[in-house]
Amino acid sequence: MKHAFSFSGFFRLLLIVGFTLQLSTTAEATSRERIEAFLETTGFDVALDGIAFASTSAPQMLGMVPDDFGTDWARAAKQVFDVQIMHRLAVEILEQTLTETALEHAITFYSSELGQRLVEVENASHKIEDDTYKQEQGRAIVADLVKNGAPRVEILNRMNRAIDSSDSALRALQEIQIRFLLAAHSAGVIELDLDGDDLRQAIKQNESATRTALRMSALAGAAYTYQVFPDEDIQTYAEELEYPLMQEVYELLNAVQYEIMANRFEALAQKMKNLETGQDI
Questions:
Q1: Other C-beta atoms within 10 Å of 64: how many?
Q2: Is the CB of residue 180 less than 8 Å from the CB of residue 58?
Q3: What is the pTM for the complete model shown?
């Protein structure tokens, strides 16, 4: 039986991850060993592992539940969002796109005393599978900050603006939604009367509300993740994220993250087809 997709399910995906998409390329390649060191030092390897958590929203995006795919659903999602596969994809892209200058700048900052403390809490946050818990805790922190008129709210907002200064996260996640839906339709998992352009238009109708929700979610997430840091450290971090070379690094890392998400969701659509027809995977 085919199903119709769910915009509410996609909205959940939007709140799981929020970065930017703006892929830049360069003829200068960086060695695999340097990329591996870069991933570990910056904590981006752990962030990649967290992409797997987004797979839990896949059935809801299609108007379904995991049980619709039988007992093999968890195994299928784990196979598709395999950590080693995602890591290999990231390294392959970064080898060809990340300049040595940008890499060195990021490593220098994140290997500093402050940088390592930031990576520690960011890694811990990425490893929490229950995003609802983080959001609830973060919103409570933000509510107290607002109540007390604390300047920390604007500092956190400044940091988030540096990470996504042009709403690229929203557009990237919309494109992931479209690619997943079209792949699921092609695989025969769902019925879809809209083509790619019509899907974009339908999703765009809720863009304003979704953008606001994304920003509130990002604020709550940052409030939770960096709660042990004083305002001065967060201010320093925001200033560092605004630095041109760090902007280049984050634009690329976020692009890599989103390309991997889109790639894996398309692969998951094919797995869903096999599960729905009762075939072994």
A1: 23
A2: yes
A3: 0.80
